[in-house]
Amino acid sequence: MGFGAMRVTGTGVWGDPPERGAAKALLRRALELGVTFLDTADSYGPNVSETIIAEALHPYPAGLVIGTKGGFTRPNRSWRADGRPEHLRAALDGSLKRLRLERIDLYQLHTPDPRVPFAESIGVLADAQRAGKIRHIGLSNVSLAQLEAAEGLIDVVSVQNEYNLSDRASEDVLAACTQRGIAFIPWYPLGAGTALRAAKLKRVAARHDATPAQVALAWLLAHSPVMLPIPGTGAIAHLEENVAAAALRLTAEDLAALA
Fold it and tell me: What pTM was computed for the model?
């Protein structure tokens, strides 16, 4: 179970969190619970999540992998794709500085930009990898066709798409990742609140004395061996509940009920 650090920011993923000390304590607790993968992006804040990760955890312990992303800007708190080479180069350098790293273990293109040829955006990351600024390259918010196009240019190690029990639109991308051994990082892994209130989910949760959210996360882990959920939260109690879901083993009957 990884940790999504989008919510160690202010409301609406904008600005500083209400209590910076609490956000740092949350990150430290994630590592105490055995989390070894943190997901962030320059657009979270913007620039806030990465900065707080470094303040809380640098120098980083051995074995911790930090994945960050570039390719979104936040004009007026909105989300706008920007895959221009000059923007991606600046975004990467900014992330390196904020995270206090010489090389980022996993850098993902946050989203394709329809105004920029996809190969141009990917090429910037390939150049940065050759320059030693990036160890591994991943993609986010991509279609199967875009994944296949990128595979012709780089070694893709991860895909981060929206995916959960109630939204399986990226099933084809997940299937390709499973077949090829590419990590699949589902964002919004718990889906909408209505999905967690589903009767079938509640029945499975009751059988295991677990919460519906824990079952939803356990289902993701059981669904594919390449799955890496990154539930995010601003509360330590919720963090502990999410991480505990990794130990929940669903039966064949459970999985059939949730299919």
Answer: 0.96
